[in-house]
Amino acid sequence: MSATIMTPLAPHAFLNPLLIEEAVRRALDEDLGRAGDITSIATIPAGTPARAAFVARKPGVVAGLPLADAAFRLLDPAVRFAAKVADGARVAPGDVLATVEGPARAVLSGERVALNFLGHLAGIASATSAYADRIRHTKAKITCTRKTTPGLRALEKYAVKCGGGSNHRYGLDDAVLIKDNHIAVAGGVRAVLARARAAVGHLVRIEIEVDTLDQLAEVLSAGGADVVLLDNMPPAVLRQAVELVAGKLVTEASGGINLDTVAAVAETGVDFISSGALTHSVTTLDIGLDIEM
Question: Is 231 tagged catalytic?
Fold first, then answer.
C-alpha cells in the first residue's frame, strides 16, 4: 500500500478550505434528513468497525479527496481517512485513491456524499485534462466559464485546475466581461469601453466579446480593453483575428468548442480557449468504495 498523502488538496489550485466543510455539511444535511441514516442505524450494531477503499474503476484525474475526507470526519471524528494520492493525480483502473476506517455506521452514512463529490469533481478534472492534452503543443490554455452547478462553482473551478486547466472569472464581481447585449444597451463599442474603464479600478481587467473582424477593429481603435473574446469564429477567421490583435490584447476563443475542434482552435495562436462543457456536460468518473472487512 502506498504511503498516506497528508494534504490531498492540489498544491497548484485555488480553493478556500472553509468552502469544503460548508459544501459537505449541506450535502450531508440533504442526505441524512431529519432522522439520519435509518438503514445503517437499524442494521449495524453501534461500535461495529469497518474499513474500505476508494478505488478507481476508470482512468482519469482525481479531484475532491478533501471533500470525501470531510464527509466522514463531520459524521464521526473517529473515522480515519488516508489519501494515497493527491488531487490532480492521474489514476488507472484499480488504483486506490484513499482508505477510510472507523465506525461502520459513519463509513456507510458518508459513502454516497463522498462518492458524489469525488466522482463529479474527478469527472471535471478528467475532462479538462483531455482538452489540455489536445492543445499541449500550442501556447493556448483551456479555461472554464460561469456555466457551473449553482452552489458548487468554487469546487468545480478547483477541479478544472486539478485537470490542468485555467480559471476564468469566478463571478460577476471580479472582472468586467462586456458581451453583445451590454454593447447594444450601452450604445456601441466605444461607449461601453469608455464607461467601463472610467468606472473600474486599475486592477480590474476588462474583456469584450466580438463576433466579427470589423468589431475587433473597432475595439482596437477605441482602446480600454485588456482581453478580447472571439466568439464563434471558425479557425480561419480566428487566425486573422490573432494577426490583427498582434499581441496588443489577450485573446480568448469561445463558442461550441469540443475535443474534436479544440486543437485546430489552439493552433490559430489564441491565448485562451473557454468551454462551458468542462463543467456543465461532463461524465462522472467511476469510483467505488470497496469494503475490506
Answer: yes
Short-list 102, 132, 249, 229, CA closest to 177: 229
112 is catalytic: yes
pLDDT, position 6? 66
* DSSP H stretches of helix in the chain: 17-32, 38-43, 65-73, 104-134, 153-162, 180-186, 189-199, 213-222, 235-245, 262-266, 277-280
Burial class, 255, CB count within 10 angstroms (exposed 0-12 / middle 13-18 / buried 19+): middle
Determine whether 179 is an active site residue.
Answer: yes
**Choice among 207, 231, 252, 271 that is catalytic:** 231
Catalytic-residue membership of 139 = no
pLDDT in tens, 30-55: 999 999 999 999 999 999 999 999 99
Give the residue from 289, 292, 285 showing the smallest Cα distance to 59.
285
pTM, full prediction: 0.94
pLDDT attached to residue 221 = 96
What is the enclosing helix (H) or strand (E) of 82? strand 80-83
- pLDDT for 55-75, tens place per residue? 999 999 999 999 999 999 999
